[in-house]
Amino acid sequence: MSEIYAIEVKTIDGRNIAMSEYEGQVLLIVNTATRCGFAPQFTGLEELYQKYKDQGVAVLGFPCNQFAGQEPGYDAEIASACSLNFGVTFPLFAKVDVNGPNQHPLFRLLKRKKSGFLGSGAIKWNFTKFLVDRKGNVVKRYAPTVKPEKIEADIRKLL
């Protein structure tokens, strides 16, 4: 079993679940922020989710307030903003840190498997995306500027 499936996460409504609930699916894991300039990407992420969820693709959003305070709200406020402003129905999780001493174990693993620009492990901004294959392998990391529609071809290759 891939080590990603042993990690526990908290849903945005407060339930603890194991990532093993997503075993066998292609995952697009994203650190998000509703007040970020890249927030319109929520729409593209939702479109990918709607188009491919029946083929075993899950988009997983992890709100983060580590970049210019662009996600200051509580989990319930974040869920509401994502739904009302962007039509998000893909799974959202409790707010996490993606860098630093309190970083979530999921992001520690993702960064270890796919470092960023020039080998940097740190996540530089909101909407950094990680693509995970059906076996739990982290296959690609995308910069915040990469729009969801540019990831579609890579998702199709993993289906």
From TrEMBL:
Residues of the signal peptide: none
PROSITE patterns documented for this protein: GLUTATHIONE_PEROXID_1 (PS00460), GLUTATHIONE_PEROXID_2 (PS00763), GLUTATHIONE_PEROXID_3 (PS51355), THIOREDOXIN_2 (PS51352)
Thioredoxin domain segment(s): 1-159
GO terms for biological process, alphabetical: cellular response to oxidative stress
Keywords associated with the record: Oxidoreductase, Peroxidase
Coiled-coil features, chain-numbered ranges: none
Stored Pfam families: GSHPx
Active site: 36
Record-level Gene Ontology MF annotations: peroxidase activity
Presence of the UniProt keyword Acetylation in the record: no
UniProt cross-references to InterPro entries, sorted A to Z: Glutathione_peroxidase (IPR000889), GPX_AS (IPR029759), GPX_CS (IPR029760), Thioredoxin-like_sf (IPR036249), Thioredoxin_domain (IPR013766)
Domain of life of the native organism: Bacteria
Family affiliation: Belongs to the glutathione peroxidase family.
Protein name: Glutathione peroxidase
